Amino acid sequence: MTKKMLMSNHNTVWICSWNPLYTGHSLRIGGTTHYLNKGVPPNVVKSLGRYRSQTPS
Question: What is the spatial distance between Cα 24 and Cα 6, in angstroms, rounded to a whole number?
């Protein structure tokens, strides 16, 4: 499944339930926040999310 297909499917569901549209960035930052709140080490989250920044967390 491509990103375009995923976002189209999700936004179709969101529109039907009167919610705002979401972007890929919304899902990415939401997933990052979820893992960090669950106690996953930041370096693991960076690796899973393929973040390239070396900025300390």
Answer: 9
Give me the residue label for tokens 């499944």: 1
Domain boundaries, the chain: 23-52
Q: Give the confidence band of 55 by pLDDT, cuts at 50, 70, 90.
A: low
Q: What's CA 22's distance to the chain center, in Å?
A: 10
d(CA 13, CA 54): 36
Fill in the DSSP letter of residue 21. Answer: P
Q: What is the pLDDT of residues 24-41, one digit of tens each?
A: 777 778 888 899 999 999
For 19, phi then psi, to 5°, come to -100, 160
29-34 CB contacts, 8 Å cutoff, 24+ apart: none
